[in-house]
């Protein structure tokens, strides 16, 4: 009999927990930091040139995979809708406010037998729009997934090449916008009042740049250059932060 009573009390307790309204329903705003790593691969820069004499030409540089890692600062907003006592579905957006810079300049040979030196890249202006299915562990705890759309900009800086045989090449910057998807997993817990803490891991994968914004410049000898860059990219972030449920 005692065993039956204990089981009955346990079931009643679990039922009470399951039916408690989640503290995470509604609007929220949050901020996070942690660690970010960007990998840039299949990196090709295409260029054309035109000399004063009228001679034209073109070429392609190919570089090895590059990385840009650092500390991010991510702002997020969203809304959690109740599905039932155990599940919420969130709609959210976040924005990475800090750029990540490749701190080690790289070099790449080109199809004309030259080598371009001192190239650097910057990853910036990432935003994500996502759905977030969430399991209500109890009133103050939440485990969730993230799946959705991600976009970012990568800028490539090529300094002027002042050594033969590429002394004709001016400094140029190429900007690429690219998009892909985000997958994430996280945990939130209320701290005090409407404030909560959270931790999450995210993976983002990007296709080749859909928008290829080229750059044009003229060297001191009058040779005009136009460049464009394409690449593939992936990113992962490990984030911890705090938020407020309005």
Average pLDDT level: 84
Report the end-to-end length measured between terminal Cα atoms. 47 Å
CATH architecture: Beta Barrel
Structural class: mainly beta
Domain tally: 1
**Which parts are unreliable, with pLDDT below 50 for 5 consecutive residues or more?**
3-19
The ordered H/E elements are HEEEEEEEEEEEEEE
What does this structure look like?
This protein is mostly beta strands. The chain has 1 helix and 14 strands; from the N terminus they run H-E-E-E-E-E-E-E-E-E-E-E-E-E-E. Strands 1-4-5-8-9-10-11-14 form an 8-stranded antiparallel beta barrel. The chain is elongated.
Summarize the structure.
The protein has 246 residues and is mainly beta. Helix content is 7%, strand content 68%.
What labels describe this entry?
elongated, mainly beta, Porin, disordered N terminus, 7% helix, 246 residues
Which helices and strands appear, and what pairs or packs with what?
Layout: H1 2-18, E1 26-50, E2 56-63, E3 66-70, E4 73-82, E5 87-96, E6 100-101, E7 106-109, E8 115-138, E9 141-158, E10 172-192, E11 195-206, E12 211-213, E13 215-218, E14 224-245
């Amino acid at each position: 009999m005692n065993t039956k009573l204990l089981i009955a009390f346990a079931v009643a307790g679990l039922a009470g927990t399951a039916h408690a309204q989640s503290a995470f329903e509604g609007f929220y705003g949050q901020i996070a930091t942690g660690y970010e790593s960007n990998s840039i691969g299949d990196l090709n820069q295409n260029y054309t040139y035109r000399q004063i004499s009228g001679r034209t030409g073109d070429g392609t540089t190919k570089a090895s995979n590059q990385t840009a890692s650092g500390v991010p600062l991510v702002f997020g907003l969203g809304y959690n809708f109740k599905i039932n006592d155990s599940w919420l579905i969130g709609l959210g957006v976040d924005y990475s406010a800090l750029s990540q810079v490749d701190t080690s300049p790289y070099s790449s040979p080109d199809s004309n037998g030259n080598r371009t030196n001192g190239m650097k890249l910057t990853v910036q202006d990432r935003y994500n729009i996502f759905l977030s299915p969430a399991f209500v562990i109890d009133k103050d705890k939440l485990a969730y997934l993230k799946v959705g759309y991600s976009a970012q900009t990568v800028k490539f800086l090529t300094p002027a090449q002042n050594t033969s045989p590429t002394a004709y090449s001016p400094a140029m910057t190429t900007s690429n916008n690219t998009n892909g998807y985000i997958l994430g997993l996280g945990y939130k817990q209320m701290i005090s009042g409407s404030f909560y803490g959270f931790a999450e891991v995210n993976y983002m994968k990007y296709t080749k740049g859909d928008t290829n914004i080229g750059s044009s410049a003229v060297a001191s000898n009058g040779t005009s250059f136009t460049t464009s860059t394409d690449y593939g990219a992936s990113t992962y972030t490990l984030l911890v932060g705090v938020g407020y449920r309005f």
